Amino acid sequence: MTITASGAAPSSILEGGHAELVDSFETFIRRELVPLAADMPETEALPPADLRSYVRKRSAALGFYAGEYPEELGGSDMPLTAVVLLHHAAGRSGCALAPYALGGSDGPSPLLRNGTEQQIQRYLVPLVRGEMTRCLALTEPHAGSDAFRLTTVAVRDTDGWVLNGRKTFVSNADRADIALIVTATDLGDDRPTGSTAFVVPMDQPGLRIGQRYEGMSGEPMFELLLDDVRLPPDAVIGGDRGVGAATALAIDSLSRGRLIVAATCNGIAEHAVRLGLEYARSRTAFGERIGTYQHIQEHLVSSHAEVESSKLLTLASAQLLDLGREAPENAALAKLTASETAVRAVDRALQIHGATGWVRGHPLEFLYRHVRMMTIIEGTSEVQKVIVAKAMGLH
Ligand SMILES: Cc1cc2nc3c(=O)[nH]c(=O)nc-3n(C[C@H](O)[C@H](O)[C@H](O)COP(=O)(O)OP(=O)(O)OC[C@H]3O[C@@H](n4cnc5c(N)ncnc54)[C@H](O)[C@@H]3O)c2cc1C
């Protein structure tokens, strides 16, 4: 953060090792993505599919997209700390195309890292190269936070599996090449079963998109209907060891996902602080720049303090994970703090702009709607608090 006049912000001490990488990513955003996004209003949540596809592939060719994946799969073998810093930089850039330069909820999935060799080559490699996109179908009308109380069920039959049920709020279902679908498992005997994750081509007979939901900031989500979807045995992610084991396969990716969302939120919050600061320095009221008024300073200093604290928490949690010492409650705490911080920072920056920030088309008007999803996705704030409370012995 370059807000302080007196020197580096405290969090920069944890960023140092990857300064060159972040620099080159920011140069890529500035030189290539900003001009491409120039014709696209910042209020447009979803860039056209061909533009997103170009950005993915170009970023993959430069080694940014899916950087955390091994080189033999097309990634750059980056530690999580580096990945987190790139997501932060994308959020901070304010460029509508920057988030698409990094693998997100439509990109390579850690679930597939636990796939069979065939699944890795057939699906994960093209996802890492940005040549394919996917969606994840986990949530159901009656199973959201309680994500493994599923009623969509996979029944084992002689040829493989038959899936029936209904998924909801699935992002990218209209563009994805494949769906990762998590179901309850019925083995046809009395054995205890868990949930199973399947990889399913979107044109698989029996699988279709139902209702389309329009998110507050224009991101669509979809219902997925499964009506006797017949799959071969090798559609189970992880093969035989994946049967009834989706939770185990997903568990080590939860902290990573949460830290990436936290980093994006920190970036958005920093961007909001910068917009607020620029306005506070230029706008006058009652004959003075509004930044000289303590009420405005209160907004900006509070946000700055919260963003810096949140960045430290996210970066420290990422570094612990890179050292193999991350505990799930750290990522939960980081995601909770960052998402709540971003919502507040955007709200305060809009307040500083008065009516100007509230007008449709202003970057803050868009961010205000966009950032609101962050306390819901990748586990709601309440769910993060449940995880932290448990770690504190409160259960
Ligand atoms: C933008 C966006 C994109 C999404 N994309 C996808 C996707 O691609 N694929 C997918 O499968 N899903 C997706 N979802 C769904 C998302 O995963 C769920 O919304 C989320 O898991 C919360 O579930 P829910 O909405 O059913 O809320 P619920 O679980 O019903 O929760 C309702 C309220 O109760 C609280 N609550 C629940 N349990 C507890 C508890 N134990 N203690 C205290 N409070 C609790 C929650 O925090 C929340 O405030 C997306 C959602 C959004 C907003």
Automatic annotation (TrEMBL):
SUPFAM superfamilies in the record: Acyl-CoA dehydrogenase C-terminal domain-like, Acyl-CoA dehydrogenase NM domain-like
PANTHER family: MEDIUM-CHAIN SPECIFIC ACYL-COA DEHYDROGENASE, MITOCHONDRIAL, MEDIUM-CHAIN SPECIFIC ACYL-COA DEHYDROGENASE, MITOCHONDRIAL-RELATED
GO cellular component term, pick one: cytoplasm
UniProt GO BP: fatty acid beta-oxidation using acyl-CoA dehydrogenase
Annotated family: Belongs to the acyl-CoA dehydrogenase family.
Protein name in the entry: Acyl-CoA dehydrogenase
Gene3D superfamilies: Acyl-CoA dehydrogenase/oxidase, N-terminal domain (1.10.540.10), Butyryl-CoA Dehydrogenase, subunit A, domain 2 (2.40.110.10), Butyryl-CoA Dehydrogenase, subunit A, domain 3 (1.20.140.10)
Residues of the Acyl-CoA dehydrogenase/oxidase N-terminal domain: 18-131
Domain Acyl-CoA oxidase/dehydrogenase middle as annotated: residue spans: 135-229
Superkingdom of this protein's organism: Bacteria
Entry annotated with the keyword Nucleus: no
Keywords: FAD, Flavoprotein, Oxidoreductase
Pfam families, per the entry: Acyl-CoA_dh_1 (PF00441), Acyl-CoA_dh_M (PF02770), Acyl-CoA_dh_N (PF02771)
InterPro entries: Acyl-CoA_dehydrogenase, Acyl-CoA_Oxase/DH_mid-dom, Acyl-CoA_Oxase/DH_mid-dom_sf, AcylCo_DH-like_C, AcylCo_DH/oxidase_C, AcylCoA_DH/ox_N, AcylCoA_DH/ox_N_sf, AcylCoA_DH/oxidase_NM_dom_sf
Swiss-Prot/TrEMBL cofactor(s): FAD
Species of provenance: Streptomyces capitiformicae
GO MF annotations in UniProt: acyl-CoA dehydrogenase activity; flavin adenine dinucleotide binding
Residue stretches making up the Acyl-CoA dehydrogenase/oxidase C-terminal domain: 249-392
Key word Oxidoreductase present: yes
